[in-house]
């Protein structure tokens, strides 16, 4: 099993969700996040005062899936989240040791 964590722009969430559903993905966790990468934020003007916005709004997606679905899921996220501009986000893939469905006690791939 693998865990995919993707940081994307908030307005791309619906497109990414639909793309993942099209490849047969069943579960996803979404968290609102703030952060910055190379873009390092920007300055804004509010009521005549200039201030720096260091942390930009992002959305963090987390999904755990069987190994053979990882490549399809990553491709779906990239295709649907990409705008071609700086700040499109990142995808991280890591190994998951174990999964347990609390309700039934199922473990491993069956718990997904």
TrEMBL record:
Modification O-UMP-tyrosine occurs at: 51
SMART domains for this protein: P-II
Keyword Phosphoprotein listed: yes
GO BP annotation list: regulation of nitrogen utilization
Database matches in InterPro entries: N-reg_PII, N-reg_PII-like_a/b, N-reg_PII/ATP_PRibTrfase_C, N-reg_PII_CS, N-reg_PII_urydylation_site
GO cellular component terms, semicolon-separated: cytosol
Assembly and oligomerization: Homotrimer.
Protein name: Nitrogen regulatory protein P-II
Species name: Methyloceanibacter methanicus
Organism lineage string: Bacteria, Pseudomonadati, Pseudomonadota, Alphaproteobacteria, Hyphomicrobiales
